[in-house]
Amino acid sequence: MLDNGDFVYLDQALPGVYWDAKYFSRDNFTGRQVDGYEVNRVVGSRALSRALQRAQERARQSNLELLLWDAYRPERAVRFFLNWAAGPEDFQTKERHYPRIDKSRMVELGYLAGRSGHSRGGSVDLTLCCRASGKPLDMGTDFDFMDPRSHHGAEGISAEAADNRALLRRMMEECGFVALEEEWWHYSLLQEPYPDTYFDFPIR
């Protein structure tokens, strides 16, 4: 049960959707389970859910499905990220997630922020996958790859990956989202339900 009635479990609100709550597991850039993620569920505001339903319908027209990694993010998780970035380097996830930067510079370079739109309930991290198998489309990099190759319009990725990114962007923008230029997987609602409110209830 969620501590806020205007937020929903997206796997329930979007029947058939795929999800993998990366910050609940250790399969993320910190290599640890992140504070505030107590179950493998992805949560979003009802406004976000309605917009994602439209995106899901568009994806299915191409025999695709949405694969969600993160949406609502408790503020305690943002603090966890900042504390991790300020700590010593253990190289556990560096090669996979940030091979060309020092973790101590993640905030300075804009890869981490002290406040996140995710905590307002209006942002989502996702990709497209095969509807039947759940296999993700090639997007050129992994999720949370902190590198210029993750930018929209990046060089050094295949034509197929560039086309897939463009398909996802077009689909999401047609459903009321705006892209983050530095992260091909990150989209926010143009009309956020809580533009000035940051929540911290855990996902449980």
UniProtKB/TrEMBL annotation:
Q: Which cofactor does it need?
A: Zn(2+)
**Recorded GO terms, molecular function?**
D-Ala-D-Ala dipeptidase activity; metallopeptidase activity; zinc ion binding
Q: Which residues bind Zn(2+)?
A: H118, D125, H186
Which SUPFAM superfamilies does the UniProt entry name for this protein?
Answer: Hedgehog/DD-peptidase
Known EC number(s)?
A: 3.4.13.22
Q: Where's the active site on this chain? A: E183
- Recorded family membership: Belongs to the peptidase M15D family.
What is this protein called in UniProt? Answer: D-alanyl-D-alanine dipeptidase
Species this chain originates from = Candidatus Pullichristensenella excrementigallinarum
